[in-house]
């Protein structure tokens, strides 16, 4: 479906692509791998990693639900000037005497129900729904894979929207209220059985409510999004210190920095920069309102040289251009297709950089970028589409790095010994098999053993001998490499989470302020992992590792057939990419 149906692609390119995919040397969009076949053909939304939209109309909320149900991450802006475009909420009548609206059991049906409910509430009329057509909890999802969640998550979302809008009668929604509705959407999608719900919420620098949205304790739904402040110009030193101090003291690295002025000024000349308004949840792709990001990846190995990387980069670029031709989004507003057709964005990324750090020098990066641009022109011309408006980035690569066993994106390995945690649905046959065999597991944060819908599996890991680890680099060394990538490789951004030791906060803040013009978006977290419970990575010592490894059984995957009597592939559920550190 990805390449064999297109006769314009050279046979040599097809053969090389197959070879590199089988060798785990180059990877396409992981969404495309997940949804290839019926799901991707039905709606191309499913093939894209992430999206961005402004929350300024009812359609933005229903599209948020639809896009997340397709397995695609969703970035959004709740800047006051955008949320203000929503109408004021009048006094709301009960609606008990109105016939219930029957919900179709599909992604479109669920999203339509949000649109219908909010439209009615904005007209001063409550409505209620008939959920009888929604498949019961545990029913198989034939096209997207997984198991149905039943109607209860959707009921929870409808109730939350009603409550929020009832509380806002006589005025407009605030940025925080719009943000919370989007977060609630993400939470019910995770429960609903798709791979994950990743979000980033962009808000005004001056918004005090958004600055403190994740002050502990906060509602668990807010863990679904990374929160970042939008900087439209370089702040004064006093303004920067206020936000930087809040970030450092939060223990969660929030709010993060999204430097819109740098994103626009750094854009290549072939892009119309003023239309860049946001980013995807992990911050590596600069996006218009209503636009998708389109990622491919090169895996950098310790034995790679420049020639081998140039060959891989060529293949990854071809894959990206091919992916960019899939722009059929029947449920979404027409602007989504228009923006993707006009810009044909690529996101060619390099993962495993710290497995071969000497090769990541400025001259090599320039040569790799030049090859990407040359192949982009050639491939887009052969396929009859526009030259991509921007091409290169570094994505966090949390999933790919686990699959191909590499360091993740721009980041070093975590430590010599660490615990790696994975989230998995309680209904997943794979979880049932692993639990029966004795793999250590605990309920998701805020859930109980009796009622947990998501469980956290823990595995001890030993890093490869001689690799670069998080313990080997300072925060400033990480930022120096970020600057190298921004100057010599990225037309978008290098998504980086910098782990800051307690004594480094002052010098790191000073570096950020002095290098403001090259920073699109960087996340900063405490070196010790901050306040996150059951974080994806946790450093341990050798003794703990050796004790832990004895508790982990040798897994017999042949036993999976006892639990999986039919195809019901179920993806994991992760919190937001940086907000809960699923990236590294």
TrEMBL record:
<dbReference type="Pfam" id="PF21995">
    <property type="entry name" value="RNR-II_ins_dom"/>
</dbReference>
<keyword id="KW-0170">Cobalt</keyword>
<feature type="domain" description="B12-dependent ribonucleotide reductase insertion">
    <location>
        <begin position="97"/>
        <end position="158"/>
    </location>
</feature>
<keyword id="KW-0846">Cobalamin</keyword>
<dbReference type="GO" id="GO:0004748">
    <property type="term" value="F:ribonucleoside-diphosphate reductase activity, thioredoxin disulfide as acceptor"/>
</dbReference>
<dbReference type="GO" id="GO:0031419">
    <property type="term" value="F:cobalamin binding"/>
</dbReference>
<dbReference type="InterPro" id="IPR054158">
    <property type="entry name" value="RNR-II_ins_dom"/>
</dbReference>
<dbReference type="InterPro" id="IPR050862">
    <property type="entry name" value="RdRp_reductase_class-2"/>
</dbReference>
<protein>
    <recommendedName>
        <fullName>B12-dependent ribonucleotide reductase insertion domain-containing protein</fullName>
    </recommendedName>
</protein>
<keyword id="KW-0560">Oxidoreductase</keyword>
